[in-house]
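pasting for ref
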Amino acid sequence: MRSKTLYLSDLDGTLLQNDATLSPYAVRELNRMIEKGLCFSISSARSTGTVIGILEGLRLNVPIALFNGVIYYDYNAAKFVRVMDIDPEAAAQAACIMEKYGLNNTMYTYRDQQLFACYTSLKTERERQFAAERSKFPQKKWRQVRSLSETAREERVVFFSMPGTKEKMDRIYEEMAKIPNLTLSYYLDTYEPLWYLEIQAGGVDKRLSIRVLRQMAGADRVVAFGDNHNDLAMAGEADVFCAVANATADVLNCADQVIPANTEDGVIRYLLDLESKGGW
């Protein structure tokens, strides 16, 4: 019996174009290959709030992993199938540090098939625009709370995402790293000169997304694609890890293979090349 391979791609800087969209070519070819039997999914730091729109028109046949392996979402059924909580005490400590540094958003909580983006205030135009753009889809609701730390003690916290200048985020990273039972991802944003610190439960990262989705797909092996620091976790877990040519130096150094850049639809071209050689 022929083995089954899951092809698992990051989104931003990898599968998406530089304007954070899927090219019509990518949608067309992916759908055609999925119809022919390609087993394909997504592992992204994004949430359902933006992914649903980005993937519109794509006919995926495997759940997707979001928030770096925190959330597993059945795109076709519009249903969360697995969610990994942060330890309540660790979440409360992280929220206190956010408040200390004046970070008013975003802390994500989960309840009854609903993801909430919690904030205490949206002070800047950028913050208000960010929230507005990500409030268009029902799978994530923006919700103002009195205190992030109080909310963290009362509800299921699943993820933190905080942008800022490198100087400020370096200090926050150092403090967050002292809290047990957390996983931290810290990297330069793909689209603007801001550093992002993302926090999820201890032991949860894109490495876990490979394990979970491999099982969900019934796959024997996984080929993963990435470009940024948070994709490094996939390099050690995938059977083959491919970096797009525009990837960061550390990701390129860990890659089994370097494929064309995201702007050249490198992931699609890799899959088409396999198809021409006999399939996936």
